[in-house]
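> call design_seq(struct)
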């Protein structure tokens, strides 16, 4: 019975990850849904000087999926995320369609790897400490992080008139 509850907890956490990122959810657009259909120029527009654009938000989310996965798998918080600086990577020198698609693919791959790590994570370890948090809290926290930024992206889209 305890094994069943543990697998139920992992299922709930993977469902949270999916609904926050790309699976249909009752709350409306998730992160990937909010980014859908944006062009490179729309994603690179800033709401004001010195403010983050949608593209940077997408990369920021990719980084944190990467960081949480590394913490859960024991690889540590530091590593070789492909973009710099890690937390808020700079836009590519040529922010064109190919670069935007590549960065969306990086976000998708970061999610896929995180989801796989969570799906195989032993439920008995959800209460283990990982820095200031527990493993379980890191997992539902990264799902909440996606939803927070999905809302931010939707607001920026409206503000910038990027799409309807």
């Amino acid at each position: 019975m305890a094994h069943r509850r543990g697998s139920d907890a992992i299922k709930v956490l993977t469902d949270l990850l999916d609904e926050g990122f790309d699976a249909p959810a009752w709350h409306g657009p998730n992160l990937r849904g909010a980014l859908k259909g944006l062009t490179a120029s729309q994603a690179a527009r800033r709401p004001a000087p010195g403010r983050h654009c949608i593209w940077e938000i997408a990369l920021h989310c990719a980084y944190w999926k990467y960081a949480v996965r590394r913490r859960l798998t024991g690889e540590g918080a530091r590593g070789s995320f492909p973009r710099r600086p890690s937390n808020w990577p700079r836009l590519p020198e040529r922010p064109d369609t190919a670069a935007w698609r590549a960065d969306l693919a990086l976000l998708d791959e970061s999610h896929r790897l995180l989801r796989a790590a969570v799906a195989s994570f032993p439920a008995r370890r959800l209460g283990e400490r990982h820095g200031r948090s527990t493993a379980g809290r890191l997992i539902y926290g990264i799902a909440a992080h996606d939803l927070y930024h999905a809302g931010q992206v939707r607001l920026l889209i409206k503000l910038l008139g990027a799409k309807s």
